[in-house]
Amino acid sequence: MDVLLLSRLQFAVATLFHFLFVPLTLGLAVLLAIMETLYVKTGDKEYQRMAKFWGKLFLINFAVGVVTGITLEFQFGTNWSRYSSIVGDIFGSLLAIEATMAFFLESTFIAVWHFGWKRLSPLAHAVCIWLVAAASTFSAVWILIANSWMQHPVGYHEVWNEAVGMTRFELVNFFEVITQPYAIVQILHTLAGAYLLAGFFVMGVSAYNILRKKETLFFVRSFRMALIFGFIFSVATVGLGDLKGQEVGKYQPSKLAALESHWETETRAPFYLFLVPDPKNERNLFEFGKIPGGLSLLMGHSLDTEVVGLKDIPKEDRPPVTLTFLSFRIMVGLGFLFILLTVVGLFKRNKLEKSPGFLKIMVLALPLPYLSNEFGWIVAEVGRQPWIVYGKLRTADAVSRIAVSQVVPSLAAFILVYGLLGALAFYLIYHHARKGPAPLAP
Amino acid sequence: MLETTWFVLWGILWAAYFMLDGFDLGLGSLLPFVTKNEEEKRKVYASLGPFWDGNEVWLITAGGVTFAAFPKTYAILFSSLYSALMLLLFALILRGVSIEFRGKMQSARWKSFWDGGMFVGSLLAALLLGVAFANIFQGIPIDGEGVYHGTLLTLLNPYGLLGGLLFVALFLVHGALWLAVKTDGDIHRRAVSYAKGLWPVLAVVAVLFLVYTAFATNLYANYLDMPLLFVIPLLCVAGLFLSRIFLAGDKLWNAWFASSLTIVGAAMFGVMGLYPNLLPSSLDSAHSLTAFNTMSSPLTLKIMLGVTLVFVPLVIGYQVWVYRLFRHKVTAEDLAYEEAY
Fold first, then answer.
1. Which of A323, A391, A414, B1 has an alpha carbon 20 to 30 Å from B299's alpha carbon atom?
2. Nearest to B53 among A85, A107, A438 (CB)
3. pTM of the predicted structure, to 2 decimals
């Protein structure tokens, strides 16, 4: 166990845990804003009830998202100090902008929303939650621009800085950093994936209560709203995923080769429905369901697209194949499943109470978008290895020069504290989801 | 010029953070003492409910700006203070979760558990922030490679601990004054008497700190070089006395603002004394990290300046609006509705 591996594990734990709560914040904020807007427009108090009920679950979730986010900002400095020194000129500014532009707006207005039900007009109150939805989206935009820069570094040069006494990456073109196509696709794909999670969350909780025959009208209405939302973003996520794959293929050939476990550089590269990677022997142990030219088509929408194979990438530059490959396949499989489930839902939307089988499936499906979101991040980050800045800076050269004796306790603490926190948070959400909405005020 | 501008902005962000989260952390630390029953506890949470999260973001921003403007300082500071910062992090996590989870279940044991968390998280955070900053003023053992030759215990030296005590005292008074402003009745009276009782403790610790600073740090050098700067600690001391005077005259909002001045003054006293150092090395001043040997490129500093000059006033604007919207005292009626803590 060395500082590098421990720090990587710690960052993974912290980020994956944080990302259990972020997608729901992103998507549910929008759903809440829609509910409140409908209340303002129609005056139907049921919409206000919906906003209050789903809002209560939102607040539990949001709190954990906020506190676990601080960890990430600290960790760039604590465990990745060499990374921070070398690329802070670009990366640090993106994070600082995220704080000034997004975090303040989000944290300030969620509090106004929480406490302002009686102090603000329905319209002003609805504006607050729209601001929260916008702010959390801005936040995602900036952090994803930052991550995209790590995946495909642009707009910078590597230069010896005399005053600072080191060679570092310095910003040359800010506009290029914030508008590069890789980032735009990354942002849209991640947001869509988050929004679909919110849709499935609301559908899952609603289905659970419809099955218990608790507040059926309320939950049928919630389900149907979330269904449309979930359907749109399920389709969007897959479509944008295709675009994302192309960007990865263009700029991160080693990641693409790993997530497909593709070994030979070739055009008309085949796609296999099922395969078992054998990285030690630089091949796949077993391949099944060959679609000739399928991979080239997926990557570049043309049979002549050359797909670089892992064999042509030096061993020290290859990411962990099996983990990347499995994560990718699970994520994609789930992505298609979400489309299927929401399409079925669209057909059954007017007879939900008479479809207990479908409702049970939607309850069981609730955790699935959490898995797809997490596996997506595993593909993104593990697939980028051994680079912390793709092709330019290795993860091994980026870690802090600190003692193992410091990281072991902090890693253990994160696992323990986050484990407890996660259990408590999900228990609270479950408790209040079961409790249902407050009765309509007389 | 850019470096100095950013140095001062950096200081202001920390000062703003201490002024705002200071009352949350102080009030959280007072919780078990200043409240005698469930309703009073809920009033404490309600008094900081609309503000605490927005206050905490100033920390994220101060940290983010350290990263953006002085990345090498951010890197070496955070990795050197590793254990202290991890403890701070867990304290803040505990504090935040305690506030948000406490009211979500009706069991007395649940609430009591999170009240404990609120207390421990708030007090620990206040203490660690003070210890961290005192050590920054004093300098820490970093070498030419930016490697820290110490442990957590190194930071718990007398001056560091005094800094911790100072922050705790500052925040306790600040929190007590906030509670006094926001409440009526028994709890209000108790808050006032805590503020009055803690003030002399704060005054003594502050004097000790100011004196010890002359021996433990180089902070006064800048002030002696440019005596005009003495206006900063003077304002800090003025704030301290004014807060007591206003408290005696029952002008509680004024007292709280004076307490804010004390905190901002104390933070800026430290920051301007530190200049141009951001993190002095106690091993060799040649290894000290300064605004001039850790700053980002001029392009980054200029872009960040533009962003800051647009967004920070905006943030101040809407945060002031929120403080005004919720300026009323917390009443039993506020606690009665469903969404209250």
1. A391
2. A107
3. 0.96
